[in-house]
Structure formats: C-alpha cells, structure tokens
Amino acid sequence: MATSNHPIGVFDSGYGGLTVLKEFINQMPEYDFVYLGDNARTPYGTRSFDVVYEYTLEAVKRLFDEGCHLVILACNTASAKALRSIQQRDLPRIAPHKRVLGVIRPSVEEVAQSTQNGHVGVVATSGTVASDSYPIELEKWSEGRVKQTSQEACPMWVPIVENNVMNTPGADYFIQQNLEALFQKDPLIDSLILGCTHYPLLIESIRKFIPQQGVRVIEQGKIVAQKLQDYLYRHPEIDANCTKTSERKFLTTEEVHFFEARAAQFLGYPIRARKIEL
Ligand code: DGL
C-alpha cells in the first residue's frame, strides 16, 4: 500500500498500548502515529508462544503496509514472546531497513537504575511471567544491581480492564490477592514493575493494596516514550523515516464503536477508528 506518511506504529493486543501511545503523543507531539489494537483476539497473555508470535507478526506486517518504518510492540506479552523472533528471523527477510522494538528492555534499564536494595517485583500476564523475560533481562542488563526478581502472574487484570470493571469490589479482590502473593515471595521488594500496558488503568487499586510503604511503582508509558526519543536521537537514519505532521490513526480488529468509546476513556479525548482484518 503506497503512502506518503511514515507514522510510528504502536501495537497492542487491545487497549493497553494506549497508555504508551498517550505518552508518545505527550512527549513527541509532532510525530505521526498509527495504533493497532487486536481487540478481537485479546487477551494474548494466556496464549501459546506460537500463537502470540503469529498474531504479532501479522500486526507488524499490517503496520508496515500503513507506511511504518518503525513499530513499537506496546505489549509486554508480544515483546516477551514474539519480538526476538521477529527481529532476528523475519525482519532481515521481509524488511531489513525497518525496526521493531519492545517495552521490556526500557523498563528493565529504568528499574536497574532506580532500585535501592536490588529487590524487584514484576506483575504481568501469565505469558510474560512464563517467558521469564524480566528476570533474564534484569540479570543481563542490571550489572549486578538487581539481586532478586519475584514475579506474579495476574491473569484477571487484563479482562478487568478490557471489560471496564476497574474500581469494583470484584476487581479489588483479585488485585489484593495477587499483590499479597507477590510480597509474600519477597517482602523486601522496593520497585514494582507493572509489566503489562493495561495495568496503569488499575493504578489506584494497585497503590491501595501494596502491603508496604515506600515501594516505587514503575509504569511503562513515560519510560518507553523517553527511551524512544533517545533511540531516535541515536539513530537519525530511522528518525528521518518518521514523518512529523501530528497525524494519528487508530485501527482495531473489533467493532469500531466499542473501540472509539474505550479509547477515548484511555486517552481523554475522542478519536475515530477504522476496523481492519488481520
Ligand atoms: N497489554 C498487554 C501486555 O502488556 C496485554 C496482554 C494481553 O493481551 O493479555 O502484556
């Protein structure tokens, strides 16, 4: 599909990546962005490696067709299960000059700097936890500063957000259970990574149920936006391929009116979306 605009593609299984897009737009308003939410097939967190890889690759190819030279997987599950294969196996073959980046590495770099005692907690989908991406990457990139990483899979949290039942007693029940289980594994945790882009929508309940004081909660949007700007500064050849006319496009695999209504809640302003098939 020929297009004169080259937006930055932002992909998530559903609405969660909008928490990242919102920060991209805040911090980099001049750039063009196209968001793709695979709402019809969400959640990804409980799906196998092969399925997440297959769905994510389809989405990335679709975003390339929209003119993107750079795609951000604003989804931890896709970053954990599909990013490496896409970068190493697919890109050299289908689009050697294009780039696909994820959200795990920026979060890991941030927490490695900020933890005071080296005890890190991660809440994420079952898929991200099972991949062990956070413990592996923290071990690799923290230069010994992170001593212990404890994880808790929270399979109910994405459905709570997708179904818009945050701040209800039912939602709070699951959030409290999962956080208590995590802090029982390691009561010394001083930094908690929200390892799923849906979770910032649950921040009030999360703060309420962290069983101790002084824990730093790491939300990904601001951090990933900052790291993206650093990346574009360090890679002017990629930056030159990102057009800057402040255009925003929204694509969803679900019915448009659902997406438009929820996306407006996430972003704080109305948007128009287009339904696509992958
Ligand atoms: N926002 C995705 C993530 O960051 C959600 C996962 C899902 O679809 O289960 O992991």
Q: What's the rounded overall pLDDT mean?
A: 95
Work out the number of β strands.
10
Major beta-sheet overview: 6 strands, parallel
Shape: globular
> So, CATH architecture of the largest domain?
3-Layer(aba) Sandwich
What is the CATH topology classification name of the largest domain? Rossmann fold
Instruction: Please count the helical segments.
Output: 13
SSE arrangement, N to C: EHEHEHHEHEHHEHHEHEHHEHE
Question: What is Rg?
Answer: 18 Å
Structure overview:
By secondary structure, the protein is α/β, with parallel strands linked by helices. It folds into two domains: about 150 residues, Rossmann fold (3-Layer(aba) Sandwich), CATH 3.40.50; about 120 residues, Rossmann fold (3-Layer(aba) Sandwich), CATH 3.40.50. The protein has 13 helices and ten strands. The strands form two sheets. It has a six-stranded parallel sheet with strand order 4-3-1-2-9-10, with helices on both faces. Strand 9, helix 13 and strand 10 form a beta-alpha-beta unit. The longest helix is centred in the N-terminal third of the chain and has 17 residues. It is globular and about 55 Å long. It starts with 7 loop residues before the first strand and ends with a strand. The structure holds D-glutamic acid (DGL). The site of D-glutamic acid has 17 residues, from helix 3.
